[in-house]
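User: My instructor asked us to take a sequence, write out its structure as tokens, and then describe one feature of it. I'm not sure where to start. Here is the sequence I was given:
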Amino acid sequence: MTRRRWSWMNELLPFVAMLMTTCLDMGALTLVKAAMDGGLSIIVYIVYHSALGTFILLPFFIIHIYRNIGRPQLTFHIMLRFFILGLLGLCLYQILGYVGVYYSSPTMASALGNLTPAITFVTSIIFRMEKIDMRSSVSVAKLSGTIITICGAMVFTFYQGPQLFVTIRSPGSPDDQILLSQPSNWVFGGLMIFIGGTFGCIWNVLQSAIAKEFPDQFTIVFFFCLFGTIQCTALSPFLEPNPSAWLVQSGIGTIAVVFGAVYSVGIRISILTWCLEKKGPVYVAMFSPLSIVIAIIMGVTFLGDALHIGSAIGAVIIIAGFYVVMWGQVQEKNKLEDKHLDVANESGLSDQTAPLLFP
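Assistant: Let's start with the prediction itself. The structure tokens for your sequence are:
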């Protein structure tokens, strides 16, 4: 058995790519937050951002159709599912998510974003795609990690505490008090992000089910963006009735729209797809907690956000719960792979010819 040689393409480059993507994610979110603070309407940003992203995807989708003549047939049933994906994953998820960011901060969004594995686990149980077995260490890890992340999210949202990195304070100042609650806007923002994230997790579960029935990922992504853009546009007159709000002036608002669309549709999807192919989904997910640190640095530096001890404690608890859930997922993946290899060996198949269950 030969030892696997170290390769910068397989080891170093994915790490750099994921680190860069995490920084750009938080940079884009901080840019949008600054644009919204400067007067950019939430729904205006979402409609322009989504429409531009769909327009960028259109020529690639046309090429994809001509190159894949034998792709699955688009039926009314499939198109209806694409419509539901657009409603859940783009329309509701983005509207609620950006409303939450507007009332709170990118730090809140990045922290609660680490609830995704836990919420997805609960959603899978509700849809009967996963069962809980208390005799299994995998189920116990996922369940306990879910409880830990939810507790951390509650601490992050509802407990403020004294401000960190403050060396000079006058006696009796508010920073000397242990505040048991956050300002109402902060709590409302966290609630919107959580609800939006829940819709996003439901989207993940449904998208996985649809991908098994319609194994053409690019087509799913295009129609998801197209239908989501149409739905957001249909809702926009009710959410933003002021016509002047749709005239985005050149400056940070335009930069946020263009950068968000080009980065999320072109750069981000390409990098994540490549990293998923090289290292797998667990490796990609492990960088999620890093977004909290980057969001805090950017928020304090560019938005003037204050860091309180409640946010720090809540973030640590969320990260701990996140890694517990991820550990459970890794163990489950290893068990499935071992089971598959045992079946393959019993069937007389070699390791090279056995199909892989995971990328």
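For the description part of your assignment, you could build on this observation: Residues 309-346 form the longest helix (38 residues). Try explaining in your own words what that tells you about the chain.
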